Amino acid sequence: MSGEVLERLRRLVREQGGLIATLVDHRVGGGANRRPAARGPAAVLADAPRTSDRREEYELLVEAIYEGYLLHYGRARVVRALEADLALLAGDRLYAIGLARLVALGDTLAVAELADTITLCALAHGAGDARLAEAVWAAGVRAVGWGASAPHRRAKDLVLAGAPEALDAMLTCAATTAHSPSIGPRYC
Q: Which of 24, 37, 139, 186 lies 20 to 30 Å (CA to CA) from residue 176?
């Protein structure tokens, strides 16, 4: 599934035209020197109840936003920008493409959740904590698919405060569905 969603993302970026379309990496898998793509956020949404009625659209838009994140902080899978400034601009454009598609679906809760995710990841990376940023991403996507919870909001507050327990809180939220019957007061 990951490869299929990434191919759809390649088509979407090409359809946008302009400079970003020229940055699409046409090599399958993003080139021979890249590691195989890890399971992306779309895989989390595949079975999510909040997004099941428009699964393919949610998968595409969240992968667009995640690709923007990777252009800012990691190794993008679809877009290849050799200069740092160009990577930031392309990342911002992909954030905008994904969020605009989400707005078109009318899912304001998911818009707010992914905007928070982008912000909290920037804070985590600014603090030099890539592991926290990845946990924020995973928990944010989980909240889009299953709904936010009070513990997830608390975990976001912990990240904002720079609290040492923020990582554990986010990892717990990332691993737990919001409406699981086994959820206790500490869990998302």
A: 37
